[in-house]
Design goal:
By secondary structure, the protein is an all-alpha fold. The chain is built from 22 helices and no strands.
């Protein structure tokens, strides 16, 4: 009864338009008061305990992404991507998708990727004769890679949440954010290049032909124009993968580096503009942290009432195998991703699902990547898909038109989700190299 009340209040408030963080807090505290003997005076302490030191990476990655998206880094990356694949049938959409892949590894934010790449490429793709829906669908969908290709705020949220849990036998679950970052690289590239393949096939069907490739000298020039923006990828991923620094340290380095190249190297952001950049990053960070703290209170109640254990016992009685469980997980996350912001879904569902997944032999890092890919899909599905709203405002198209334009690309992403779900090695191969 208490769990039913909890979820009825939670989703009822969300449907009424109450912010997710407030909905989580009200539903958790009201259920504690009505159905348990828990002293609610300890709720603030539980809230604060959820803001772990590993979450320090979030504001710094957010600030780094804000600095790079407001400068010329995105345009330089686009020019470089176009020099590589722009001559192929579908070269311009493929360039946009490749630019999204690269910028996702720079910013770690899906909406920032859509804005940075879309503001330049939407018009360019349309002007060479592609249908408007084709341009919108490609960039809106590829922009969602921002939360899968590291660095990723959603991965940090998952890692921080998962590491505070116990499996059904009481053993502490530990998930390394560094391993999550490594695990996201191959799935992100797999889905990104699948989108590029679809763009190539779609362009050929529309009658577009290959053109003359750019000269090697021009490609080299565009590479050096984008060099300082591209170098941040090597610094973050190479540093983490090489064991030089942690994800949190990488965030600090990325933040300082983004400031230096934006203000002193490319000189496309003035010191007087920094107030607006910091303000945007602070607002985004505050929203994320408020959700995290409230979700920790929510998770505390679930754990205290042993809800995951009861659900797991029921599933074990049904003799549910791991692959059937993952079907159910993907359906649940797909539905929730349509109505809630990714970090909120991760914070709510990880305490409920991860202990069960571990009991069925599923690696917690692999499970985290499954969750993130689902959240990536949620970024382009209505009614709350944030990328849809960003693309709609950029292109002045109705939300319905943008939604219809992403459907073919959504199918590509769902196929990618199925592959990533049932071939764990795709996610676990890179992290496993350090486990040997």
């Amino acid at each position: 009864m208490s769990v039913l009340f909890l979820f009825i209040v939670l989703f009822g408030l969300i449907l009424l338009g109450v912010p997710v963080a407030v909905s989580l807090g009200i539903s958790s505290v009201s259920t504690m008061l009505l159905f348990t003997n828990t002293d609610v005076s300890g709720v603030p302490e539980i809230f604060i305990s959820g803001l772990k030191t590993t979450l320090m990476a979030i504001p710094m990655f957010v600030l780094a992404g804000s600095l790079l998206s407001k400068g010329s880094s995105a345009e330089r990356i686009i020019n470089f991507a176009q020099s590589l694949v722009g001559h192929l049938p579908g070269g311009l959409p493929m360039s946009a998708i490749l630019a999204c892949i690269i910028f996702a590894a720079v910013s770690g934010s899906s909406p920032a990727t859509v804005v940075a790449i879309g503001s330049v490429m939407f018009i360019a793709i349309k002007e060479v004769g592609y249908p408007k829906s084709y341009a919108v669908g490609a960039i809106t969908s590829a922009g969602s890679l921002g939360i899968l290709i590291p660095p990723s705020v959603v991965m940090i949220v998952y890692g921080a949440t998962a590491s505070g849990l116990s499996d059904l036998e009481g053993r502490t679950i530990t998930v390394s954010i560094e391993e999550l970052f490594k695990a996201g690289i191959i799935p992100g590239l797999l889905i990104g290049f699948s989108m590029m393949l679809y763009a190539y096939i779609g362009a050929k069907r529309l009658g577009f032909k290959a053109s003359t490739p750019e000269k090697l000298s021009i490609r080299i020039k565009k590479f050096f124009d984008a060099f300082w923006a591209l170098l941040i990828i090597l610094i973050i991923i190479g540093g983490i993968y090489g064991g030089i620094f942690t994800a949190t340290e990488a965030a600090g380095i990325a933040c300082v580096y983004a400031f230096v190249i934006s203000v002193f190297v490319y000189r496309d952001i003035k010191l007087k503009d920094m107030y607006g950049v910091f303000l945007d990053a602070a607002i985004t960070t505050a929203m994320i942290f408020l959700i995290i703290g409230s979700a920790v209170v929510f998770a505390h109640f679930l754990t205290h009432e042993r809800i995951p254990h009861k659900i797991a016992a029921f599933l074990i009685e049904q003799k549910m195998s791991w692959w059937v469980f993952l079907i159910a997980v993907n359906i649940i996350l797909f539905i929730m991703g349509q109505f809630m912001e990714p970090s909120s879904v991760v914070m709510i569902m990880t305490p409920l699902l991860l202990p069960i997944a571990v009991s069925l032999g599923i690696d917690p890092v692999h499970f985290g990547i499954i969750m993130v890919v689902n959240m990536e899909i949620g970024m382009i599905t209505p009614p709350v898909g944030l990328n849809l709203f960003v693309a709609s405002s950029l292109t002045n198209l109705k939300l319905q038109e943008v939604t219809l334009s992403v459907i073919p690309w959504l199918i590509v992403m769902i196929l990618g989700l199925i592959v990533v779900t049932y071939i764990p090695e795709i996610s676990l191969w890179l992290p496993s190299l350090n486990r040997i």
